[in-house]
Design brief:
single chain, alpha+beta, Rossmann fold, OB fold (Dihydrolipoamide Acetyltransferase, E2P), 5-stranded antiparallel sheet, elongated
Amino acid sequence: MSHLHLDNLQCTYDRTVAVRHLDLRVAQGELLALLGPSGCGKSTTLRMVAGFVPPSAGRILFGDRDVTHAPPHARDTGMVFQGYALFMHMSVAENVAFGLQMRKVPRAEQAARVKEALRLVQLEHLAERRPAALSGGQQQRVALARALVVRPAVFLLDEPMSNLDARLRTEVRLEIRALQQRLGLTTLLVTHDQEEALTTADRLAVMDHGRVRQVGTPQQVYEQPVDQFVANFIGRCNLVPGRLEAPGAFRAGAQLLPCAAAATPPRATGELALMVRPDRIRIAEAGAPGLPARVKLGTYLGGTTEWHFETEVGPVSVAQPSVPARGAPTIGERVSLQWSAEHALPLPADATAS
């Protein structure tokens, strides 16, 4: 395995900059998730690493080896595609062996490595079956085995679970993570699914319009987003517009609301907003200290209920247990919304703007 370094990587299509000044390092054995909306540049980045898209500038390094201009077959990558790209006329074993055949690995070694790869994904008993006779989860495991059997220096995952149903997606996600950790694979995962990124990755790189907004552990990015875009993209949040009046005091309309005292927004453009996660807000009696609100709607989600409120500074959502200690509010009821100062962060619209 090798570490991966993307050094000032850029990609331009017909004067459109798809990826700009990207500088990322993935440590040996680490799983880094590229996360962002459609068109943010994450898939283009992955394809540049795989060798399918040539960069306009910058370098791609596997360890100390510069592979920027190397063809895909010479890069030592294993890639799992969004659509799996299995050969339907081949058996499971033949699909897994395909990359080894292209690399002209001796037949005896091919057989041993295919058997080991199928054992890793628990498909030894289906080696002779065709992909059409497999479930979606089993096809996904064949694609994983085909990528692993070549013993890649860098493992690439292009939204590999997007074609699975919600329950199977959770199961396969855990299997991929366990396999990646057990084998110590240096892995780059592309996804638009925030839950997948939070539960799978060692670190996240949140992308937007071809650039990275923030890199950090899942907890860092969720708890300490650098700007409103990251806060809105990673998890649910409320963004209350206003201004920082003093350390620990945020002015929103006529209300002076508590916020993290140490928060000092970086050089940025756009108005500030106070970020508070829905599960960090308490519902108190009307007239209590906090933000006055009126109950507009309740959405039952099983273990939790999401309550939607009208306030003088805009809509606010609150998530609480479906059987709350206080008792559920009623539609139209007036209440007060409270939170601890450390759970409210004033954020700029764009922390990377100049």
